Structures are given as structure tokens and as C-alpha cells.
Amino acid sequence: MGRKLRQTEAGIYHVAARAQVGELLFRDEHDYLRFETELERILSPACTCIAACAIDTHYHLLLQTEDGVINRAMQRLNHAYSSAFNARYGRRGHTFADRYMSVPVTSEGHLLTVFRYIARNPVEAGLCQEPAQWVWSSYRVAIGRRGRFAFADPSIVLELFNGSIEKLREFVETPWLSDRTAVSDTASRCLTPEEEAVRHPQGV
Known about the structure:
Blueprint: E1 11-18, H1 29-43, E2 47-55, E3 58-65, H2 70-89, E4 101-104, H3 108-124, H4 139-142, H5 155-158, H6 165-173, H7 182-188, H8 193-198
Antiparallel strand pairs: 1-3, 1-4, 2-3
Helix pairs in contact: 1-2
């Protein structure tokens, strides 16, 4: 049975990809910087990056794209990063575990939930206590601070809070009991078996 065709229509997508099982996708600052560079070089001309976050084994993106763009852009991004990663470490073979995950965002509520999930991913992974503490996230930029992924444009999310950074921060930074399942339950209904394998063990 062939793979389920991905949606490629214009819209907003939650995208994620992870390393092979037992391996790291980002080993040090150089790797994170290379990913940030490739993300801006390849995706910025083709998509609007609403949010981005990279942690040791995987990354998450929230992208707004035109029709027919997302597949080609993501293939170029992952290929460019994988080639650089393999060359740096003298390794061969696949860097990523199967295909990247791509889930269409279907409502304002879904958009907010995914944005919050991406910002809190390092917290849920036990890497920091607050979303703004993680360097390799666009969340710091979203709340008006200096940070990585400075090209990210969260304005579509801020508009839902009438431009209030304070309200956005309250929404993102207040813990919920459902934090570990909020996106997982939504995303699982949309994933093929191959896409399911891409997800972080704690959920994406």
C-alpha cells in the first residue's frame, strides 16, 4: 500500500522531523546554527515561519505556505541539513527518521494550541523551566526579546490576542494539565504510520 498523499494546499502547517532512533539531530551549537541558517535560506523565500523550535533530537515548525510549496521546501531543508550534518561527522545514510510530519492547522484554536505546544516543547522535554529560557526557539522573538530564528513572524498569532504580548505570554507560559497530550491527540488523527514514526517519543 502506497503512502498517503500529503496535503500541499495553501495554508498553515505544523511540521516536525526527528533523528534516527538513538541518535541526536543537533549535537552542539554549530549544528543548531547550521539548521537556523538553512531554515532561513530555504524556507523564508517560500513560506512564512510563524514559530520554530529545535531540541537535541527533533525540530518543530509552524509554517504558512502558498499552494504547492511545502513539500518541495521541506525536502530541500532536510536534504541540505542532512548533507551538512553527515559531512561534518563523517557519517553516511539517513539523518532523519523517515518522512517529516506535516499536519494542516484547521482552526484558530488549533493554531494557538500548536504555537503553544512548540514554545513549550523544551519545557516538556525537561530542558528548561520556562519557554523563553530555551535559546533555539523563536518564542523569545515572539515576546519581543532578542533571540534565534529572528526571521520568524508570529503576527498571525499575536493578532488573536489583539497584539498583546502579555496575553500571549499568559497563554503560553501557564502550565496546563493537558500539555503532554494537547497536540498529540489532534495530530494522531491526521498521521500515516510513517508520519507517526517521526514523532518524538513524548509526542509532538
